[in-house]
Design brief:
Blueprint: H1 2-17, E1 24-26, E2 41-43, H2 53-65, E3 73-75, H3 80-91, E4 96-98, H4 103-109, H5 123-133, H6 154-160, E5 167-171, H7 183-195, E6 199-202, H8 207-217, E7 223-225, H9 232-241, E8 244-248, H10 251-258, E9 263-266, H11 283-286, E10 287-288, H12 314-317, H13 321-330
Helix pairs in contact: 1-5, 1-10, 2-3, 7-13
């Protein structure tokens, strides 16, 4: 979901700067709300049903190809499925363009020895490069991603009541453990914020995360667990209403960035230098992390899916709850 969310400001910029272009996005049906307010069309493949495997992808190609005469096909994902799909278009004479992910650079950035520690191109710029290679003008500094694209349904707004104190959204979970701030430390963060007068909403996750979040919210009326209660479009509306969001390096960070809400992200095994920071964030204002001068092993992974070779998870454990709360307070 995070990858798809990062395409939104790019698509918005292309549409604004190239008014005659028409864009059709091929993505999962569940992700359509991310593009709310943008004039795009959608194709929603069933990748685990009729569009599964090579035969299914060929069926998907034929369905897409029957819609119109395509001027270009842009692959922003460059994984096995998308490579196969774009190959079908290429074989039929349709120009195709694909992302350069910088895999070699990212491997060097996360290397255990002879690490090349430097800022790499942001993923949104890599997406924009695909459009540029197809001949489109793309300046992401004027991406037209408006804050009012998402809103809370009236009945939900009535349930939440008036905003009498700052609202802080917290998304404490991530796909991989190495990207998550320890839950007991996050409990301390939540308790401290509550004591300082913030109203807290917990976002993001499935059934297991909901159970953990219930324990974070226990016996505290100023904390509300929203996990599993609302649709994606409603969650985006809720994120839009937050005064700030605290997130891991996760899809929740990218969702919050789409609403132009202030986002503070916590980084452990991964690093913003790999190019996956939330759109519009900058290091000084929005990132919480142990500096590389104090922990030279960071980053050890692009996606946070590798075990800590130190076995102490210092990149997260050395971040104090007090420092996180201070960063949040500094934004107000």
């Amino acid at each position: 979901m995070g990858d798809v969310a990062m395409t939104v400001p790019v698509v918005a910029a292309v549409l604004r700067q190239n008014p005659s272009v028409k864009i059709t996005v091929v993505t999962r049906k569940a992700f359509i709300p991310l593009f709310n307010g943008l004039e795009v069309e959608f194709v929603t493949p069933d990748l685990y049903g009729e569009h599964k495997g090579i035969r299914g992808l060929y069926r998907l190609f034929k369905e897409i190809n029957s819609i119109t005469t395509w001027d270009a096909v842009l692959d922003l994902h460059d994984v096995l499925r998308s490579k196969i799909l774009r190959t079908f278009f290429k074989l039929f004479g349709i120009p195709t363009f694909h992302i350069e992910k910088g895999r070699k650079e990212k491997k060097a950035l996360t290397s255990k020895v002879e690490k090349e520690f430097k800022q790499l191109k942001h993923t949104t710029e890599r997406y924009a490069d695909v459009f540029r290679s197809a001949g489109f003008e793309v300046d992401l500094s004027i991406a037209d991603v408006k804050k009012d694209r998402f809103s809370i349904p009236k009945d939900l707004a009535n349930t939440l009541g008036d905003k009498t104190k700052p609202w802080i959204g917290i998304a404490p979970f991530a796909q991989h453990q190495q990207k998550m701030y320890p839950i007991e430390k996050m409990q301390s963060v939540i308790n401290l914020l509550s004591e300082k007068g913030f109203r807290i909403f917990v976002f993001g996750g499935g059934d297991q995360e909901k159970i953990l979040a219930d324990s974070l919210c226990k016996n505290n009326e100023s904390i509300t667990n929203l996990i599993g209660q609302y649709s994606l479009i409603e969650e985006l509306g809720l994120l839009n209403e937050m005064d700030a969001v605290l997130s891991m390096d996760s899809a929740n960070m990218h969702m919050a960035a789409l609403t132009k809400t202030k986002v503070i992200s916590i980084w452990g095994a991964t690093h913003p230098y790999a190019g996956f920071a939330g759109f519009g964030q900058n290091q000084d204002d929005h990132f919480i992390q142990i500096p590389e001068t104090e922990l030279s092993c960071r980053p050890c992974s692009v996606f946070g899916n590798k075990p800590c070779f130190r076995d102490d998870f210092a990149c997260m454990n050395n971040i104090t709850p007090e420092s996180i709360v201070h960063k949040i307070e500094f934004m107000f």
